[in-house]
UniProtKB/TrEMBL annotation:
Pfam family, one: Alpha-amylase
Protein's name according to its UniProt entry: Alpha-amylase family protein
UniProt-listed PANTHER family: ALPHA-AMYLASE FAMILY MEMBER, MALTOSE ALPHA-D-GLUCOSYLTRANSFERASE
Source taxon at top rank: Bacteria
Organism annotation: Solirubrobacter deserti
Every Glycosyl hydrolase family 13 catalytic domain range: 18-405
Length: 540
């Protein structure tokens, strides 16, 4: 793949920043973040170096599931602004070199959506078949409940309809019937509408549930979705939430040329990362990353450390999950659904910034597309006083007084308090400190975007000679990057392969000297090297 060709595949060398508009910045002092406030902060994002802004739902909603229960796919919730505000945000982002993608929830609606209200009113309604109805409740399958703390069944009886309707999530979120071509046509129209507002793609929610039991070839839904999106906007992408074993996740990227999702989030690598951190051993992460089949050349894996939900550990064994719980969340109040943790990384690492930087360095060094959740760049923590998985969705900390809204106004959700509260963790102070986490993140993102090898290259796992060190190399055309990360917090000695005529040049060492192939690593070391070859000029 030539450099000219690869420039079209912008998502492979992107850095994505995910945020909840309600929790980012309140411009009018009503306690709720809004699109105008976010637009005011676009230059902050541009300075950080992110190239893609991913917005969580901002559509009209009863807000019983933080906006994922939608009542109108074609509008903006009035608490966050207007459609005009949204278009201005997209325009401003484009001006600063940032693309915008948004959450697309196509597997369910709110039970207050006009479609569902019409569907339940009569069996003769044209919207009746927009949802999944049965006369007798089917038997439940083990493990089917997504939210076992809130629901006991995936079926709820509706007295007005006289039937049971299916809901894989909450009962107030009835599932859409994707087997119905009319539903698929309506959803395609929704995509087309938002693409016309200037979007560069969508993060597709809960992808495996979309195709479950639908059509003879369920993946045709995803192929049709991609085909439609790219007919409308050739550069637009689909980022899928696919939390399945590696082989099944790979299937959602399509054939060798990639005819389904453009990107999938790497849940398998993410969960293995935490097991490796709990053990202080590279083995779980090495094993997980080795399990991935080859992905299409135009596809990418979204590499993340934390996302907007619970830290799910459902693909680990019960014993492995217990190890992670014991290390990072032994108190049951920090656990959720028996499968995850409702904490952010800084508190899991007890505020150890060396370890924090190492983990993000590792995630950014893997082939794929780095994805950040708002506040990670300053070391924000969770607020466990906020219910359930929303604990990690506290208001952004801009200044020592919070800075999220006007003085004296209470945010819609309470700020983080204590050791990780805004008095100690905020943007304003960190911008003025050259050694802060925020300034380190800016350097990390800049260097990552200067290393296209990490976006387009292939991964080779290396034997480092130290159990606690994860070592790998990424090759693309004539370029190679080698990275080492120490996971246990102990010194280590590693040996890295260097061929004849090759040298390792440190990509972050300001003394700009070549390093030997045998390295003495400090605790939580994070090192990136570019392989210098005789007669080949290195980038700066």
């Amino acid at each position: 793949m030539s450099v000219k060709t690869s420039s079209d595949l912008w998502w492979k060398n992107a850095v994505v920043y995910c945020l909840d508009v309600e929790m980012f910045f309140d411009s009018d002092g009503d306690g709720c973040g809004d699109l105008l406030g976010l637009t005011e902060r676009v230059d902050y994002l541009a300075g950080l170096g992110v190239s893609v802004l991913w917005l969580m739902p901002f559509y009209p909603s009863p807000n019983r599931d933080d906006g994922y229960d939608i009542t109108d796919f074609y509008a903006v919730d009035s608490s966050m602004g207007t459609l005009g505000d949204f278009v201005e945000l997209v325009r401003t982002c484009r001006d600063r070199g940032i693309r915008v993608i948004v959450d697309f929830v196509m597997n369910h609606t709110s039970d207050q959506h006009p479609w569902f209200q019409a569907a339940r009113s009569s069996k003769d309604s044209p919207y009746r078949d927009f949802y999944v109805w049965v006369d007798e409740k089917p038997p439940e399958k083990p493990g089917d409940l997504v939210f076992p703390d809130a629901e006991t069944s995936n079926w709820t009886y509706d007295r007005k309809a006289g039937q049971y309707y299916q809901h894989r999530f909450y009962k107030h979120q009835p599932d859409l019937n994707l087997a119905n071509p009319a539903v698929r046509d309506e959803l395609a129209q929704v995509l087309g509408f938002w693409l016309e507002q200037g979007l560069s793609g969508f993060r597709v929610d809960a992808v495996p549930f979309l195709i479950e039991g639908v059509l003879d070839d369920p993946h045709q839904i995803i192929r049709d979705l991609r085909s439609y999106v790219n007919r409308r906007v050739g550069e637009a992408v689909l980022l899928g939430e696919v939390n399945l074993p590696a082989e099944q996740t790979r299937a959602f990227l399509g054939d060798e040329d990639g005819d389904e999702l453009h990107m999938v989030l790497d849940f398998i690598g993410n969960q293995a990362l935490y097991l490796s951190l709990a053990r202080g051993s590279a083995e779980p992460l090495t094993k997980a990353l080795s399990s991935y089949p080859k992905i299409p050349a135009a596809a990418s894996l979204g590499r993340f450390v934390r996302n907007h939900d619970e830290l799910t550990l459902d693909k680990l064994s019960e014993e492995e999950r217990a190890e992670v719980f014991a290390r990072f969340g032994p108190d049951e109040s920090l656990q959720l659904y028996g499968r995850g943790l409702r904490r952010r990384l800084p508190t899991m690492l007890e505020g150890d910034e060396r370890a924090l930087r190492m983990v993000y360095s590792l995630a950014f060094s893997l082939p794929g597309t780095p994805v950040l959740f708002y506040g990670e760049e300053i070391g924000m923590a969770e607020n466990v006083d906020i219910e359930g998985r929303y604990a990690v969705r506290a208001p952004m900390q801009w200044a020592r007084d919070g800075g999220f809204t006007l003085p004296g106004v209470s945010p819609r959700r309470p700020m983080v308090e204590g050791a990780f509260g805004p008095e100690r963790v905020n943007v304003t102070d960190q911008r003025r400190d050259p050694g802060s986490l925020l300034n380190w993140f800016e350097r990390l993102i800049r260097r990552r975007r200067e290393c296209p090898e990490l976006g387009f290259g292939s991964l080779t796992l290396l034997e480092s000679g130290a159990e606690s060190v994860f070592a790998h190399r990424v090759d693309w055309e004539d370029a190679t990057i080698v990275c080492v990360h120490e996971l246990s917090g102990s010194p280590a000695t590693v040996s890295l392969p260097v061929g004849d005529g090759e040298r390792l040049v440190d990509l972050f060492d300001h003394s700009d000297h070549d390093l030997p192939a045998t390295l003495q690593l400090e605790p939580y070391a994070a090192r990136w090297f570019r392989v210098a070859r005789t007669g080949v000029r290195l980038p700066p």
